[in-house]
């Protein structure tokens, strides 16, 4: 082996990998990152806005649903609100990993959200609004996953994981709807 050649470990140029990792200010974003980072951050911020609006909608539904026989819906609203908050936290963390700034601005939250807020008073209207919002979220995540492709596997996997939970939410809500 030539003295100037970098050692190869399992076919990888270790010296080149180490050199690419030298810019510590970029944190998790290495030279090998292939996606349009700003576009991914924008998508993730829109998803963050959607999750935050969903938290608010579910919390409102949880606190305002009343009446005999609505305990199951109330429990679902609370569980979904907590899971949507977890999604928002994951998205904000990923945005920071990509050297972005999570946008929690309440003045623009609804405009950036893919889902709508709902202030229905009837439990069936609440369930219907939440099911529509879940279906919007599922389709939004599906489109984001396709847009990212293989260029950012971490963000892609995050969106896949969140979408799977949104699909569970949609099933839960469908089961609460009258036949």
UniProtKB/TrEMBL annotation:
The keyword Metal-binding applies. GO terms for molecular function: ferric iron binding; ferroxidase activity; heme binding. It holds the Pfam family Ferritin. Keywords: Iron, Iron storage, Metal-binding. Fe cation binds at residues 51, 87, 134, 166, 169. GO terms for biological process: intracellular iron ion homeostasis. SUPFAM superfamilies: Ferritin-like. One of its GO terms (cellular component) is cytosol. Residues 34-179 form the Ferritin-like diiron domain. This is Bacterioferritin. It comes from Massilia psychrophila.
